[in-house]
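Changelog-adjacent note: as of this version, every example in the card shows the full chain rather than a window. The one below runs 108 residues end to end.
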Amino acid sequence: MTTALIYLLVMLLVAAVVFLLASLVFGRGEELAPLAPGSSPTRLPAEDVTGEDVAATRFQIVVRGYKMSEVDWVLSRLGTEIDDLRERVTELEGRLERGDATAGRRDE
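Full-length structure tokens:
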């Protein structure tokens, strides 16, 4: 009985050491460094949000969070869409200032 307990304790100790070494060598698998506890990285300007603002947005990492690759993809997509819409608005405002009658129609 004592021998089995010693083997069990040795196996647990070896497993813990291997896990700690692997954690130190490979990290937690995150692309971003973890934030300080209690800090909130999710800040956006009150107005005129740009694609760069969306791309710079970071979320606090928690145990039961979202898959980072999916969040990054959505942020990238939203940033591109915001930039495209701003470009289109600027183009249409320029047409209105010039008095172009076709300002509301898309180019075909």
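Structural remarks: The chain has a mean pLDDT of 79.
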